[in-house]
Amino acid sequence: xxxxxxxxxxxxxxxxxxxxxxxxxxxxxxxxxxxxxxxxxxxxxxxxxxxxxxxxxxxxxxxxxxxxxxxxxxxxxxxxxxxxxxxxxxxxxxxxxxxxxxxxxxxxxxxxxxxxxxxxxxxxxxxxxxxxxxxxxxxxxxxxxxxxxxxxxxxxxxxxxxxxxxxxxxxxxx
Length: 174
Ligand SMILES: [Zn+2]
Hints:
The protein is of the alpha+beta class and 174 residues long.
């Protein structure tokens, strides 16, 4: 007679759920540097044969492998913080000019996070859910490089991209 244990569907489902909750989504993003214009931008589009900048100069490229899900988790967290600040800021009616300037800055940050999120999803080619846990308990798992004054997390990928290019000159050193 077989001595194999009966399959517990409940255990199986729990294991699958746990695996799904922890699953990595490896992908690549690329930093692009135009040595002539000194511009830096990122893309999800890999181009093995290189590409030209709009000025006609060959672009320097640095491919970076990352956990897209970790980046998305960070971006979603940042968006939540920005939303909170926008809401809070709309309550400050007394200092209108400061409030307006801050509003514009927050809206720009929101646009930049949203654009990054879109690029990550394009790199993944599918919907990637953020890790289900609270950010505090994920801190060892996420590539957190820095946190700015507003409390936004800067991931390894987006931290000082100019350091990836030896020839990069900051606009102030020109
Ligand atoms: Zn250029």
